[in-house]
Each structure stands twice: as structure tokens, then as C-alpha cells.
């Protein structure tokens, strides 16, 4: 099972994404940062969580969509990481790295991470434990981000998540939005001190970036 992500099958999506071009998107709009409440976090937070809503922030940034147009998306992250997250996603935008969608996991019924992954939703905070260990995932601290999780699945001894990601187990695929070792998009995170799950031995979590 995925140490940072979990969940229910659906049909694989085979649609290839177009390559974005710099002519279709102007400079990114400035990021905005606001606090969040327990009500806004919905099922992704509960009183037993290791941090409080007051320690989290909603960061709204510009990202390039698979339609090669600029879009606004939200990430819920730990307040300490806000400057880094803003800088990272501005760099990804300028690199023309496409992100299909970016919204809190509370958008999905029950805060279900599997549903978010199947929808290729880039997300951060979700108060959940690492399956099989009982320990909190770094997502529960707002210190992890999963990027294009359908295109960049978690793989562990032949099992993978999300359930509709089988076609993307072939890491020789090179369409936009996939992450590979040494990619500029990966280095944007690692140069800022984040760890990439794609470098792990078991499991290999291509979607996952974390900052302890």
C-alpha cells in the first residue's frame, strides 16, 4: 500500500495531453495566501489531527493547464512552507510544466485521496495516516504535495495507486505532466530541499514531494 496515498477502481484514462506553448500563457498572477477554518477543511481535518487549522494556509497560485492556458489552483499547506510553495509553483509555471487541476482534497466525498488521485488532482494537506503503519503521513502536516498523481502513480511490489493509472506505469512515456529523474520540474522541488518519492526504492512514489 502507498505510504502517503490510498483507495477504488475506475476505467483508465488514455487521453494524451498536448504540449503547452509559451505563447498561450502570460506572466503568472501573484499568489494569494489566506487562513483556513475547520469547516473549510471538511473531512480532511478532525480534532485528532497532529496540527490545527490555524497552522495551515490556503495558497492560490497560477498553473499551466493541459490546455496550455493559465489557471488558478489552491493548495493547503503548512504556514511555514508558504514562501517555498509559491516560489516552486511559479518556477513550474515558467518552465511550462502542466498541471491538470489543483484543489483541496475536501472537494472529494469524504476527503478520499484515491478519488483525488484518480482525478489527477494535485493536492497537499489531508489528515491521514500511512497505511499499515499507524504513523501520520506528511500530508497530515501540510508538508507534502502530490503532483499529477494519475500520470505519476505510486508503485509498490507490483501494486499501484491510483487504481486507474496502469497505463502510466510505463515511465518511458514522455508526454507533458509526467515526472522523471533529473527533469527540471523535479529539480524545482529538490533544489528547494524537498524529497521526491520517485527516488525511493520501495515504494516508488512518482507523484510525491515532501519537506520535513
UniProtKB/TrEMBL annotation:
It comes from the Bacteria. InterPro entries: Peptidase_M15C (IPR039561), Zn_M74/Hedgehog-like (IPR009045). Residues 1-29 are annotated as: Disordered. Residues 132-210 form the Peptidase M15C domain. Residues 17-29 have a biased composition (Low complexity). It holds the Pfam family Peptidase_M15_4. This is M15 family metallopeptidase. It comes from [Mycobacterium] nativiensis. The lineage of its organism: Bacteria, Bacillati, Actinomycetota, Actinomycetes, Mycobacteriales.
